[in-house]
Model the fold of this input.
Amino acid sequence: MYILGLESSCDETSAAIVEMGDGKRRILSNIVASQIETHRLYGGVVPEIASRAHIEAVSRITYEALDEAGLKISDIGCIAVTANPGLIGALLVGVNFAKSLAFAHKIPLVAVNHIKAHVAAAYLEAPELEPPFTALVVSGGHTSIYAVRNYTDFSEIGTTRDDAAGEAFDKIGRTIGMPYPGGAAIDKLAYEGDSKAIKLPSPAIVGDNLDFSFSGLKTAALNYINSERQKGSEPNHADIAASYTKVIVDAIVKKTSAAIEQTNTKQLVLAGGVAANSHIRGALEELCKKKRVSFYRPSMSLCSDNAAMVAAAGYFEFLDGRFTDTSLNASAADNF
Ligand code: KG4
Ligand code: ZN
Done:
């Protein structure tokens, strides 16, 4: 069946057509209208601007996705829309558009959780992947570990108690003059620095838990940069990138390793925009090799926000018969 996926939870409007079922997991189109250039002017996402940009893009890209797939709206068997978590105004644009389209064309509608969608991206490139497995979702808004029991049943076994890893990368990037979002630039720059140059606190919460905290790390790095600047010298950016990346990678490896043991899993899925980080990816690949665990990470275009992942997650909601209607509302909070 053909599923139309719609995504508008943050700063990317996306529409995709995915074919699922009968052994197929195929992306026919995956259009992403990114607002990054607009938000860059402000150093981060401005929610009101994001909502307006979604309104301008959503209808156009939906028909673009249908055209690229060579389909008509009457060919669509299900519409899947991200309903939570995210920026409420942004989510409402996708949700209301999806509701209208489903109502007007009498197409079944399912609501998708954005985190479950990030994980579902892995199914699109790995036909052999099936639950149960352990998933680590690291993005601009999330850093959480899940025990994925089946396609729609997840339980969170670890999470950040404050900021997300992506946000932490972006914040430090901005402080050292990188354009928003700085995550990818820090990834590159970290290769040129000394990871032991600056002593920074670990974002892994001490004790028998799978939780993180990035706010202390962010503050410590900012304090270091400010105190160097007050002494009259600009700190070495590459050393900052390398030291900052090292403590984040070590913390992620430590908690993921504990999660693998706790869940006794044989498969690990890494998802979300920060899954693009080459240091995190390399360290987790190594960890999985050591622990004889199969490692899955979607390709870059499926790691960052996109609607193909929403359509993939929506397919399993459809199979579970979890349909919704015009009463569907968006929620900024995580509704699993
Ligand atoms: O999943 P995503 O596209 O959006 C959210 O749902 O948040 O993730 C975006 C985040 C940004 O914080 C960005 O800086 C980060 O992913 N990111 C990276 C890299 N590429 C993107 N962080 C570290 N290293 C990278 N290579
Ligand atoms: Zn995301």
Remarks:
- Residues 10, 139-141, 166, 169-170, 181, 183-184, 187, 272-274, 276-277, 304-305 surround KG4 (ligand 1) (CB under 6 Å).
- Strands lie at 2-7, 12-21, 24-34, 78-84, 109-113, 133-138, 143-148, 154-159, 267-271, 294-296.
- The longest helix spans residues 237-263.
